[in-house]
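Weekend entry, working from home. Most of the wet-lab plans are on hold until the incubator is repaired, so I used the time to fold the two sequences that have been sitting in the queue since the last round of cloning. Logging both here for the record. First:
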Amino acid sequence: MIDIPERVDVVVAGSGATGLAAAVTLAEGGATVCVFEKQRSLGGTSNFFQGTFAVESHLQRERYVDYTRDQCFKNTMEYSHWRANPRLVRAIIDESADTIRWLEERGVVFTEATINMPDSPLTYHLIRGKGEAVVKALVERAKAVGAQIIPSTPVVSLLREGGRITGALVDVQGEEVEVTARAVVLATGGYANNKEWIKKYTGFELGVNLFPVGNTGKTGDGLRMAWEVGAAEEGVSTIEMFRVAPVGPEFAMGCNLEQAAAQPDLWVTARGERFCDETIGFYDTPVGNAQARYKADGYTFSLLDDSIIERLMTYGLDKGVGIDFPPGTRLLELRKEIEAALEHGSSEVFVADSIEELAQKTGMYPAVLAATVAEYNRYCAQGHDELFAKDRRYLRPLLGPRFYAIRARAVFLGTMGGIKVNERLEVLDKEDLPIPGLYAGGFDAGGMYGDSYPIKSSSGLASAFALNSGRIAGRSALAYLATARGMR
């Protein structure tokens, strides 16, 4: 039988980066804390991030990185056209450098301050052991300072009395058990696996034209609970989206095929029309937004020919997907992966001896695709892209003798909002007043991003928002507990 405490100072719903950062902060501050996790394992998608964002950290100072908090704040707000919550954005940016130090003091090792795209500030702090190491360090620290962590036990609803949060109901093997608490921190990770909500708020069909990466059981529990007690909405339709090809269980993340399809060569729609300057693929958010225009078809294609394959095998990548594939990485297994996909009858990878045959195999319009390739090859020959003004360095013709198409789809790492909060991560009601005793962070909280993830100015911000919002929520809850005790 699971030992459920009857009373604690704070209930934390979720054991990802947000929940664990909040729990450690609270327990170190003297609060009694219980973290309830829906899944059997701890950490969720926080186990998988490779680095996190910070500005003015000691790693950056040591490398003479002069990107400032003020610059980052302005860039982030301008990217969102000031749709983001400026006080929240400022709080997260200002907290970020101290969080690097805070994590190091609790056993996390950072190896580099870098970036994974061109012409961007060095805000991405790589972690030895990736997110899994962060989860492990925070779990160990939370337990060491007295926090209780209970897996396979979701929080299902909040208790409220006289306008204040007074605890939560948790599901213990099918039975609802009441836990009295002075405060609750919601950190359940958003609603990435909720098919109905994805359709309602984003217009996509989950598993048809939008695919979650690394998310399990995220059905919007935190959002629902907050809304049930009167919380306002913000940022509920924002998702961290990008373009991946191919998609399917038979393809490993980061495989040679995925790397090849991400290169800035020729990309076309399901009809066979070119739809973007392919160099936007260096930045996840723009290419995700461009791909999103074709949700009716559900996919686009990356086109290659033998010369492109040979270039990738001999000279390597222009763009690497993930830090394990830096530019210059040679795709030595690319032809083998293409052959294996074709042998297994893949519907994601195609090869043909002519453009017309490739169109027929993929379902593209032969005349449209032929005209697209001819036009693109003309741009390559003259060294100027008259349509989308792509950098001439990446204008490389498709001449055969064989031609390849890899189907690409929109994928996402998570939903990025829903509950309206202020800069103290207090949950706000529809009058913009804090709901006493209720806090939210990470993918449950809205207001950080506007309508798109600001990848270029602040790479690693999603994991940083999780960690920093958890710390801030923990401190805010401690202040609330002290005030509440003083009033008794």
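Second, folded right after the first finished:
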Amino acid sequence: MMKKSFFILSAIMLSIAFAVPAGATDWDFYGSVRMETFNIHQDKNANTSDYDDRDTTWRLNSVSRVGATVKEGNVGGCFEYGHGSTVSLRRLYGTWDFGAGELLVGKDYTPIFFISNQTYPNDFGLSYFGGLFSRNPMIQVKVDGFKLALVSPKTGDPTNMVKGKDITDPDYTPRVDYDTIIPKVEASYTLAMDTFSVRLFGGWNAFEVIAANNREYDITCYLYGVAGVVNAGPVTLKAMVWNGQNVDLYGLTVPLDVDFTPEYKKDGDKIRDNNGYGGIASISFKINDAIGVEAGYGYISAKDDVAGAHDDEAWAAYLQAPITLAQGVTLVPEIGHCDYETDGVDNDQGHKNYFGAKWQINF
């Protein structure tokens, strides 16, 4: 159904593009096809089994995409579909330049977005290990370097509050409903100079979990941090750090092996918040117009606000050498290590090593 919808929408957009008189509207169609070819070795703990596991990933990268941007006067827009195992809507938004700034309505990257160039897996750019990835429906106003966005709110269950569990079980209080009063709020301010930029950002999301017997539990999630980029000739430095509360229910992409979810405690009948922090850093060097090299590192940590809880940590590091084979054609060999450290009760969660390459053609 999604594939059929995708082709229908593409046909409609093409018809509109060719029907509009020349010069009236500026259409720019584009596409990017990406294959990832990696060999991954997971130890038995990271593989949640009693044996080590080695596999080859040879697949279409899920961030492969096709789309278009359009501009007519002070109004513009974009649509973009991605294709991995299924077709999905990545971006769909319209913009209005009202003179003093710009209004954006639709789905796009939110103000907290910040990742590295790591390619494994699926060009996630360390978003599993400290990077911030957020692409959601929103209404955003941009004035100079300031962005303010009202984003589709995120909801979810605290640990030990699972719908469908036996309500006689003393370890569970089942969720029956969510109440959201206002949207998620995100903001950022970027100071951009000739050779560097600095960005301050933050976000807030709150909702209520309605449990059995009409009990209500408030969940408050927030995030704040700072990021910077320095361009010094052929060298580029990127870094970002953040701190937050209940960031899984805030709506960030986090590794499955790190628990950023608040926990429901039957003792005291209350929610125990989860506190976390993380960050990423990278350095890249452009050797010439065809070859470069980049190294990056990301770290993430979470801890429940309960007695005896341990830090639940994970980190990753990578080294890559992007190669431009022709205009629009790149090959990115990369090796990396992902370490899931120990969980909140000090159990070893193992590690993963990988090597391979991403193949990409833009058109």
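Plan for Monday: verify the second prediction. Confidence is low (pLDDT under 50) at residues 1-22.
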